[in-house]
Amino acid sequence: MTLDIDLDFGITPKMPRDRSMRIGCIGSGFIMNDCHLEAYGQVGFNPYAIASRNRAHAEAAATRHGIGVVYDSWQDLVADPQVEILDIAIPPDLQVDVIRAAARQASHIRGIQAQKPLAMSLDDAREAVKIAADAGIALSVNSNMRYDQSMRALKSVLDRGWLGEPVLATIEMRAIPHWQDFLHKYRRVELINMGIHHIDAFRFLFGDPEKITCLARRDPRTKFDHIDGITQYTFQYANGVMATSLDDVWTGPKGESDDDIYIRWRVEGTEGLAKGSIGWPKYPARTPSTFAFTTKRTPKAWISPSWDAVWFPDAFAGPMAQLMCAIEDGTEPELSGRDNLRTLACVEACYRSIAEERTVRFDEFDL
User: Fold this and answer.
1) Full-model pTM
2) Pair (167, 279) in one structural domain
């Protein structure tokens, strides 16, 4: 069968003209060491300096990834006039302090990539966005699931209209994430740390919802006090689209369910259907995400492209690339802090829905 459609799904991010911009890396844990720096090495970015709470860890990362400068503190790194971009990979409740210091002391810094969530509250995130904007620094958030290969392909198919009008989107996650120590004091766990990927993906695919409903229960495996262990949330859009995610971090007793973990997604439209999976739960095995779709343009045919790239770590080049492109072009980053406020408003809507046992409108939040 001859396919009358373009099979370029745009999964490869646009790269900056200048890949030599000097990146100052703050943090040397798993996300920086095994994801950011691995991805940067693949595409030829320039991690120039690194700092961490533990200098020995920073030195080990520098040796592994060929970084020439190691600092005792992030404050010293921020002050280095050679640093052009800050790449932050520390707990998000500490990020506003770094952004504040960069804006106050470092006129040489052109851009900042922060982790998601940008902050642990919408108010703190607003402050971070304002600080960066007032200082003329491009602020971006590492919403890396937008650069997962199956999400890029799905967005391309939706934008081209091959599924017609979207009707229903679902994500089902059965996985056991690691909860970082800093989360223990906030009682906010799943939505702010893992669910935020799916929440941001819904916004990437369909835009801002009109209203949100969320239910949650405690996760029996998570021993510290928390609001949201296992969650289910539904986004309703003005055009009728429903997008719902079930985030199950229990999956069953440890040892009994370890071989049945996954993230699967599905989007149904008036003219077609797409479905796929995210390869992350099988990390560190290199497991590409999957993607398949059918459309009335190719009756009774499923189109199933494949690729060698994976979400962790390959997709982490995309968020840095789009920040560099924005710096070069003098434009707002695609993953801007300002855009991320809208994702955080959706997270806050979920928590408000849980607390008040009601559906929450997106326009209840002042953005």
Assistant:
1) 0.95
2) yes
The predicted-structure confidence for 45-89, as pLDDT tens digits, reads as follows: 999 999 999 999 999 999 999 999 999 999 999 999 999 999 999
Measure the CA–CA gap between 198 and 168, rounded to whole angstroms.
Answer: 15
Give buried/exposed letters for 38-64 (b at 16+ CB in 10 A, else e): bbbeebebebbbbbbeeeebbebbbee
**What pLDDT is stored for residue 192 in this prediction?**
95
Give the CA count within 13 Å in the CB-facing half-sphere of 146. Answer: 25
Beta strands at 46-51 and 22-26: parallel, antiparallel or unpaired: parallel
Tokens representing 20 are: 């030599």
Q: Are 162 and 307 part of one and the same domain?
A: yes
Which tens digits make up the pLDDT trace of 103-138?
Answer: 998 789 999 999 999 999 999 999 999 999 999 999
Q: How far apart are the first and last CA of the chain?
A: 49
Supply the CATH number for residue 151's domain: 3.30.360.10
Q: Are residues 97 and 236 in the same domain?
A: no
In a domain, 274, yes or no: yes
- The total number of structural domains that make up the chain: 2
Nearest Cα residue to 116 out of 13, 227, 193: 193
